[in-house]
Amino acid sequence: MKKVLISLALIFSATYLFAQQTYPVNGSYDVRQGTYAFINATIVVNAAQTITNGTLLIKGQVIQAVGASLKVPKGYVVIDLKGKFIYPSLVDAFTGYGLPEVARTIGGPRQSIFTSTKKGAYGWNEAVRPETHANAIFTTDSKKADELRKAGFGAVNAINRDGIARGTSTAVALSDDKENNTILKAESAANYSFNKGTSQNDYPTSLMGSIALLRQTYYDSQWYGKQKEEYNISLEEFNKQQGIPQIFEADGWQNVLRADKIAKEFGKQYIIKSGGDEYQRIDAIKATGASLIVPLTFSKVYEVEDTIENRSITLAQMKAWELDPANPAALEKAGIRFALTTHGLENVKDFWANLVLAIDNGLSQKQALKSLTEIPAAMIGIADKAGTLEKGKLANFIVTSDSLFKKTNIIEENWVQGKRYILFKKDDKEKKDSLNKLSNRTEPKKQLGPLIFPFTAFGTSSPLKQETVLLKNATVWTNEKEGILQNADVLLENGKIKAVGKNLSSVGAKVIDATGKHITPGIIDEHSHIAGTGGINEGAQASSAEVRIGDVINSEDVNIYRQLAGGVTTSQILHGSANPVGGQSQLIKLRWGKLPEELKFQGADGFIKFALGENVKQSNFGTGARFPVTRMGVEQTFVDEFTRAKEYKTAIAKKGNTVRRDLELDAIVEILDNKRFITCHSYVQSEINMLIKVADSLGFKINTFTHILEGYKVADKMKAHGINASTFSDWWAYKMEVAEAIPYNGKIMHNVGITTAFNSDDAEMARRLNQEAGKAVLYGGVPEEEAFKFVTLNPAKMLHIDSKVGSLKAGKDADVVIWSDNPLSIYARAEKTFVDGIAYWDMERDAQVRTEQKTERTRLIQKMKDSKAKGSKTQRPQNETPKLYDCETLDDYSLELNELERSHAHE
Fold it and tell me: Domain containing 538: what range?
C-alpha cells in the first residue's frame, strides 16, 4: 500500500507541472498526464527531415523523444501508426482568433471629434492604441478552434485588428483548455496598419494621413523616452513594444512598399502581412528585405457567359484570377521568407483547396510546409514550442492518412498540447465527399499569361527601352529664343536632348521621319490629382502640412497613360482644398510602368498646397465642425501656423534643445527657409489680398496662386510680389466664388508680366491641355507660341524645373511630343510622347497592345469557362471603377477599407 501511494505521489508531482497550478479544483484531483508512444509512422520532423518507421514519445504536453529506433519506456500507451504520417501541427501568424469582433463603421454622418474622448492619460488620437494587449482580452473559442484544428492548425497568433498602432498580439494554442494554459507567448508582436479602425477621431481621413500619424508617433515616442515632463500611457506602451517582432498589415504590394519605407525611416524591419499580389512587383518586394505573411485568398471564377456583363470585368481582374495562385511560388523562387495564413478566407474549409491550387501553380511542398510551421512559429516567437517535432517542444502534431499535400490525404487527428482531437471517422461522409471533389479538381492545363507593367489595361510585358532617336524634318516649337523652326530635327540620346537644328545626324540612331508633324516639349500640368490613392484631402484639421502626396503615389493609375496620350509628361500632384494649410505635393514624370518611387521627379523643389475660400472654412458641415468656419478664421489659421513655426524654428536651433519634432511645423519652417514653396487654391480678390498681406507680415512668399479666377483684379499686386498664376482657361460660374470669372483672365495676367499657366485639376481636362492653351489664342489673341508656353515652359518656371524641362534645348530632359498637327488645334493628336527619351506613348504600339489584350481577354474568358465546368466556385462580375479625384474630393480611407473588406467577405 505504501508503494502505491509513493507511485501516485510521483505521478501527481510530475503532472502537476502541466496543470493550472493557481486554480483550485472543486472535487477530487485527477491530473494524470498522458504518456503515448506513436510507432511505425513516417514522421516529418521538419521540412528538411523525415524519419521512416519512426517513433514519437510524448508525456503530458511535451515531446519526450523522436527517432527511428527508440525504445518505448514502460507505462507508455503504444499507438501503431503504420502507413500513417505525423507532421507538426500548423501555425498561423495572423488571425483574430479568440478576440472580440471589431465593429466596423460603414458610412454615417461626418464626425467632429478632434482629439480622443478616451478617459485616462492616453495619447490624443484613438487610432494609436498600443496600450491594447490581446492577451488581456483573449478568450478561448471552442467553435473557431475546432475549425482551425480541422484544417491542421495547432497554434495561432491572435491580433486585435483595430487601429494604426494596435498594441500587442498573443500566441495561443488551439486546445479547449482555459486561457491560462493556452497562451504560449503573452506578447508575441507589436502590430500596425494604415486603417484607423473604430477610432472616432476625425483624423486621419486619408492613407497619407495614416502614414503621417504613424511617423509622428514614432518621433513622439523618441521624444517621450528622453523627457520627464509628461506621462502618456500610449507612448509608454509604444516604446516598450519596440523590442518584440513588429507585424504590419498592408493590403496590396504598393502598401507593402509604403510600410517598408516607414520601417526604414525608423530603423525597423516589419514582418508584413501582405495582400497576395506581390508577384506583380516581385523584385521591389524582395528589395525590402521584409518577411511576409501571405494570404491564400484567391478570386473566384467570374461568370463570363453574358457578353454584355463581362465587359465590366477589367483585364487586371482577369489576370489576377489567373496569376494570384502563383504568388507563393513567385515568392519562393525569389527567395523571400514568407508564412501562409488563413486570414481573409470566407471559410477555413477553403484553405486546403487554395493551398493545393498554389502547389499546382509551382509552390513546392517543402516550402509550403515551412511556411505553415517553422517560419510562422519563428515570426511570433514560439519556435521553442511549436513548428517542428523535437524533444522539449509541445506535443502539437497531426496524424495524416498520407503525405500531407496529396489531394487524397486526410488529416485524421490533431494533437494540441498533448490533447487528442479526432477529426475524421470512417463514416464521415461529408469529409469524404469534400476530398473527392478536391482530388478530382484539376485546373485547365494552359500556360499562364505574362505579367504586364503596370498590372492594368495598356500595361506591357516588356519594359520600354530608352533609345537614341533622331526626329527629322518637323516643325519644332523650341520655346527658346530660336522660336518655331521649320523643317528641323531633334536628337534624343541617353534620356536628354542632344541637339536641336537642321540636318542633324547620329550613327546608330533610330530615325523617325516627322515631315508634316509638329514637335514640342512635353506638357506640364501644374495642378493635377491623378496617380494618388487613399484620398486626396486630409481635411480633418486646419493644417495637414505633415502629410505627403509622395507617400501615396499610385503607379497603376490608368490616367497616367491617358494623359501621355495627350502629350503630358510632368504633373504636380496636389493635395486637395479641404483646409487652409494642406499637404505636401509631389512632382512626377509620367513614366508608365515604373514603380511609384521611380515616377518622382528627382531633384525638384518641394511644394505645398494652401487654400482659400468656401472649401476650407467648411461652415456648411454643421455645428461643431473643425476650425475655421469663417473667412476670418482662415486668416487667423495662417497667422497662427507661421507664428508657431517661427517659435519652433528658434527653439530647435538652440544647442541641446529637447524640442519634440513636429512634422507639421517642419514643413512650415521649410517655407520660411525657402526650401518649400506654396501653391495656393484661390478665387476671390479679397482673400488673395489677405494672404498676400499675411505673407508680407510674417515673412514668407507665395509661389503660385492656382485657379486664381479673379487674378485679373489683382494682377498688379501679384506682379509686384513675384507671384505666378496657374488658372483655368474658361471655367466659370460653377459656384458663387467664380461668379466674376472672365475668359480673358489668363490673357490679362500674361500681359501684366505674370508667369501664367493653364492647369487641369481634372483627369479628363489634362488629356486636352494643348487645346486649353489654344483658348488663350481665342480669348484675347495671345500669340500661338506664347499660348503654348502656358502648358509647357511657364509651369516649368513656376515649378522651378525649367532648367530641365519646358523647352527643347540641348542638355534638357528628352521629354518630347510628336503631334500630327499644330499642337493648339483641336485636330492635333499626340502620336508619340517621350519621357527621358522613352516613348511611353506611341499610337502604333497602342494599337498593337489593344489587339494583344483583346486576345488575352478572349483566352482568359475561355479559361474561366473551363474552370467553371470543372466545378470551381463562381462570382458575378464586379465593376472596378478607378477613383477620380479633384480638389474637393472628401473621403474616409478607413471607411473605404472597411467597406471593401465587408464586400469581399460576402462575395
Answer: 523-805
